[in-house]
Design brief:
By secondary structure, the chain is of the alpha/beta class. The protein contains 7 helices and 8 strands. A hairpin with a 2-residue loop joins β7 and β8. The longest helix is centred in the first third of the chain and has 25 residues.
């Protein structure tokens, strides 16, 4: 079985999972956070080199004030915990998204986390925080225009390669497989550029219940696909 080099996951269903158990939504987010750690470890053991998760979108700011505050508290705790996890598992962590939209202390924690794990050679783990793909593309285009107009780069037209070099995911290979949990079948503004040739896997399982067996099932289905690029088959 061929293991995808890069898997992206939309972590959906934390709130619904908690509701089904008669618990508050924040309980689901907490359980979902713990499950991320488990899946990171299992994915790397299987041979996955890159894992990107959608943790907090630009649209998530529309949620209730209480839920946002709880999510931010959870993120603060997770940033600190991630340092220990990364050290234990030799994991490199990178945050993608508009970091300037986050609280200053969170930005500082992110900087510390990225700096202290950048030389690690294990799983490359990307967390999308305050991320929206349309926002990412707009930021990339505006930065390119600024760099060109101010002479930072030479006068040139935009190309696919240039745009990719301005995205948050610069230097990260495009995902081979996207997994979305909890039954939803849409991208929700996640990695729109990067997922152009990615295989999709949707499951009704809520994220806190997504386990190793579900991961294996997703990869098995990925292996059963006939991947085509312009009509040319690619063997998995």
């Amino acid at each position: 079985m061929k293991i995808p080099n890069h898997i992206a996951i939309i972590l959906d269903g934390n709130g619904r999972w908690a509701k089904s158990k008669g618990m508050p939504r924040n309980y689901g987010h907490s359980k979902g956070s713990k499950n991320v750690e488990i899946i990171c470890e299992e994915a790397y053991k299987m041979g996955v080199q890159y894992l990107t998760v959608y943790a907090f979108s630009t649209e998530n700011w529309r949620r209730s004030k209480d839920e946002i505050e709880a999510l931010m508290s959870l993120l603060r705790a997770y940033m600190k915990k991630s340092l220990k996890i990364a050290k234990k598992n030799n994991m490199k962590i990178q945050i993608i998204g508009d970091k300037t939209g986050l609280a200053k202390d969170l930005q500082e924690s992110i900087q510390v986390l990225e700096d202290k794990t950048k030389e690690n050679t294990g799983l490359k783990f990307q967390i999308a925080l305050n991320y929206g793909s349309r926002d990412e593309i707009m930021r990339a285009v505006n930065q390119f225009i600024y760099d060109r107009d101010t002479g930072i780069i030479e006068k040139q037209n935009m190309s696919e390669e240039i745009l990719a070099s301005y995205l948050d995911t610069k230097g990260i290979p495009e995902p081979d497989l996207l997994i979305r949990t909890s039954g939803e079948m849409r991208l929700s503004n996640f990695l729109l550029w990067q997922l152009a040739y990615t295989e999709f896997y949707f499951t009704d399982i809520h994220w806190p219940d997504f386990d190793k067996q579900e991961l294996i099932q997703a990869i098995e289905q990925y292996n059963n696909r006939e991947r085509r690029y312009g009509g040319i088959e690619e063997e998995l």
